Amino acid sequence: MKAFSLMNIGTEVGEIKGDFNKIVSFMLDTTYYDALEERNEHHQRKNEDMFSDFTDEEMMYYYVHQRKHIRKNRERKENTKTEYLRILLQFYQYAIDSESFLRQDVDDYIEKTIFKNLRPWHIRNYQTYLSTALLGKGGKPYSPATLDAKMTILKSFMKWLHDAEYIQYPLHKDILSTSLSEQEIPNRDLYYHEVKQLLDYYKDHPINHGLLTMLAMTGLRVQEIANASWGGVYLDSLSGHYRLRGVGKGGKKFDKLLHPSLYERILAFRARRHVSTALNTSDKGPLFPAKDGGYYQYKNLSNYIVRIIERTELPFLKERTDRITPHYFRHFYAIYSRQQGADIFLIQKELGHSDRKTTERYLEKVLQREQEIGLMWKEQDF
């Protein structure tokens, strides 16, 4: 396998034609970042443009890894960086594939760069391509939500390139809006009777039963569950309940209640995996070990959960047009908590939402039902 460098990624993308795994893996390595920062400092000392000698590849790399906070735990996480890189490299490949056209279409073509030769109509053409190409799940076009996510990241990158004076044109202003209408927002609601059916289906399967119960009763993200350690479980002397400590999205710490039924199912899971069920705060092993005893890769765990849900073929699944992912259980946690009388602020806190509006979106239908004007009527009047 050829060694990669930031200088030849353009060639590699052109040759690989869409298989970005090795390139993404290389570009996730942060060791090159300090060298770029030194070059920036050198330019600044000489009153030169910071990115005057950067390549397109280096600009993508720097943008994804750029440090904005003094504390490292506040930087972008690797999963976020991976998503950004895949989206930017997809655009980059499209641009490279269009290079011969760009040479004919642009006056005063600048060599050894793609980004500096882009014009507003090129961005619009890419947006049209991305919205119609059969690149989504099942060989279909991207969903409105996926398209919006991709264009949001690309727009941010293009704005940064212009603000950094790397490109001349404010291309981000020519990206058409991809914001979702109310009808296009994916329905990720999941209700108690549906969750109960899933749990009952797998009640004799300790692995699936434990994982699904953990998602339903904690509201944790699948990544937080995959990364949780057995040593994070402890018995709270104040309340007498078992709890789980861990670190979630954005480096936020969480301390989750483990209901007795959930705790018993965690123990059943661990017993089936033939690992210790004795509390040990120094145990750095996974809370839910994979077959090899190690930590799950969260994407593998997410895909596994999607598959076991589909495998049930329960009637309510056939009424849905989308697949139920682990994220749906966060919606269930919010909805069920509200139905049990929880305040929105408490739900927001438990889910780790920084913005109340996110929690309200989870609860949109529930809140609408609570405020339904028909409930004010006196039925006996009719």
What does it look like?
By secondary structure, the protein is mainly alpha-helical. 51% of the residues lie in helices and 4% in strands. A hairpin with a 6-residue loop joins strand 1 (233-235) and strand 2 (242-247). Helix 5 packs across helix 8 (144-163) and helix 10 (206-218) packs across helix 15. The longest helix is centred in the first third of the chain and has 20 residues, at 78-97. It starts with 8 loop residues before the first helix and ends in a 12-residue tail after the last helix.
**Main sheet: which strands, in order across?**
1-2-3
Radius of gyration: 25 Å
| Strand portion | under 5%
Percent of residues in helices comes to 40-55%
List the quaternary state of the chains.
single chain
Please provide the count of β strands: 3
Fold topology:
Blueprint: H1 9-16, H2 21-27, H3 33-45, H4 56-65, H5 78-97, H6 99-105, H7 120-132, H8 144-163, H9 192-201, H10 206-218, H11 222-227, E1 233-235, E2 242-247, E3 253-258, H12 260-272, H13 298-312, H14 315-318, H15 328-339, H16 344-351, H17 356-362, H18 364-370
Antiparallel strand pairs: 1-2, 2-3
Helix pairs in contact: 4-5, 5-8, 9-10, 10-12, 10-15, 15-16, 16-17
Q: Main traits of this protein?
A:
4% strand; 382 residues; 18 helices; single chain; mainly alpha; 3-stranded antiparallel beta sheet
Write a brief caption for the model:
With 382 residues, the chain is mostly helical. It is 51% helix and 4% strand. A three-stranded antiparallel beta sheet has the order 1-2-3.
